[in-house]
Amino acid sequence: MIRTLMKTLLLCLCVFATPALAVAPDEILDDPALETRARTLSAGLRCMVCQNQSIDDSDAPLAKDLRVLVRERLVAGDSNEEVIDYLVSRYGEFVLLKPRFAWHTLMLWAAGPLALIAGLIAIFLALRRKRRGRASAEENVPLSEDEQRKLRGILKSGADI
Questions:
Q1: 96 CB-contact burial (10 Å; exposed 0-12 / middle 13-18 / buried 19+)
Q2: Contact, 50 vs 58, CB < 8 A?
Q3: Which of 64, 72, 90, 158 has the most crowded CB, counting CB atoms within 10 A?
Q4: How much of the chain exceeds pLDDT 90, in percent?
Q5: DSSP string across 12-71
Q6: pTM for this structure?
C-alpha cells in the first residue's frame, strides 16, 4: 500500500516538475523544422504580461499573440534574426529575455562581473583587517609602572574577598 502511494507521489512529482508549455495545438506548425525554429525563438522572448517567463511558457493572451506572430513571420519566410528584429522594433529590447550586447546595455552586462570582483575585494580586505586586529591584540606589550601598580592593587583587593 505504501509502496503504491510512493510510486503515485513520485509520478505526480515528475509530471508537475516538467515545464508547462503554453503552446496550444492549434498554434503548432505542420512543418517540424519551422516549429522547432518557432519554439527556439519563443523560448528567448519575454512575455510582456508575466515578464519573467518566455512566451513559450506563458498562458497570457499577449504571449499567445506573440507566438502566433512568430509563426506567421516564419511561414512568410523571415529568418530568425528578421523575426527578432521585427519584434524588437515593435516592442523594444525588453521583449528579449537575454538582451543584446551593445553600448547601451554595457552596464547591464558588466554589472554582474563588477559586483563579483567588488565582493571578492571586500572579503579580502575584511579578512586582512581581521588578521591585523588579531595580531595587534596578541602582541605582548609590557605594562607601565602605573598600570602595574593598579593591577597589584586590584589583585590585593580581590585576594581579601
A1: middle
A2: yes
A3: 64
A4: 22
A5: HHHHHHS------GGG--SSHHHHHHHHHHHHTBB-TTTSSSBTTT---HHHHHHHHHHH
A6: 0.54
